[in-house]
Amino acid sequence: MTAPLPRLRARTLFAAGAGLSLTAALALTGAGTATAGTTPSGTASTADAASTTVTPAGHSFTATLNGKATFKAGSVTVTCTVSSSAPSTGSANNRVPDAPGNHNASGPVSNDINPPTFSGCTTSMPGVRAAVETSGTWTVAMQNGDPIVATLGMPAAGFKLTTTGLASCTVTAAPTGPADLPAVFTNGDADNPSQITLTNAPAPVKVEGGFGCPTAAKTSAFSAVYDVTDVTDAASRILVGD
To answer: Are strands 76-85 and 117-123 parallel, antiparallel or unpaired?
Structure first.
């Protein structure tokens, strides 16, 4: 018998100037943005921290890009058609904490996730190939509020974008230590999955390579929308409330 969806108050997704075109962009810039009600790093400030509960407790989840992912490094645009973070056998990653760990009376609820994978990548330049490699244990933290603040934690050197051919570059995100990427979480309903949205989330980068590589860039901006689905019970939704 399928359990009914938990009755938690849904929050409205805040997307700054963007429709629901499900794309991701890694644009090498010198500035970042912060979500309203957060610190510059994107995490909820202590004064704003509220009670947070993530349900269903103990359920595993997958985050899947719904559409294309686009990464821009200098003059090269890389488009990937597949990206996801999924649970794996024998690992507690991608799993809502068991009760009472799925509740925090005055702050976020966090858990480890497997690194998102990217494949089916092409570039906008003839003769240039691209590949994305991720590694390490990533994290995701949810802070109840309006909007619901999500923080994607990237381990040191956990993301590498490499181009080969006419332009041979390597872009390493979080090159010297872990980085937190600010995001927004929106609760799903009976017809739609929950989502995590990153909009120009800043992260430090190191760019290496020769001609055509933007080696002066020190900061990246990452944007993406991922559908978050419950794989323990497909009829349930991963929800954030108080």
So the answer is: antiparallel
- In angstroms, the CA 198 to CA 150 distance is 9
Token look-up 């009376």 returns: 105
For 47, phi then psi, to 5°, come to -65, -30
Distances in whole angstroms, Cα of residue 202 to Cα of each of 82, 87, 181, 187, 220: 22, 26, 6, 24, 5
Task: Please give the distance of CA 197 from its chain centroid, rounded to a whole number.
Answer: 7
For residue 21, the tally of other CB atoms under 10 A from its CB is 10
Tokens of 206: 């190191």
198: amino acid identity, one letter: L
Quick: pLDDT tens for 19-33: 323 334 444 333 333
CA-nearest of 144, 137, 124 to 8 is 144
Q: State how far the alpha carbon of 180 is from the alpha carbons of 109, 113, 117, in Å.
A: 15, 14, 18
At 3, list the tokens: 């359990």
Other Cβ atoms within 10 Å of 129 Cβ, number: 16
**What is the distance between the alpha carbons of residues 90 and 70, in angstroms, rounded to a whole number?**
32
Q: Which residues lie across from 69 on neighbouring strands?
A: 80
Report cis status (omega within 30 of 0) of the bond before 56: yes
Give the largest Cα separation in the chain, rounded.
Answer: 61
What DSSP character marks residue 47?
Answer: G
pTM above 0.70, yes or no: yes
Residue carrying structure tokens 């600010």: 182
Instruction: State the residue for tokens 């999924």.
Output: 86
Dump pLDDT digits (tens) for 215-234. Answer: 888 888 888 899 999 999 99
CA distance 128 to 2: 49
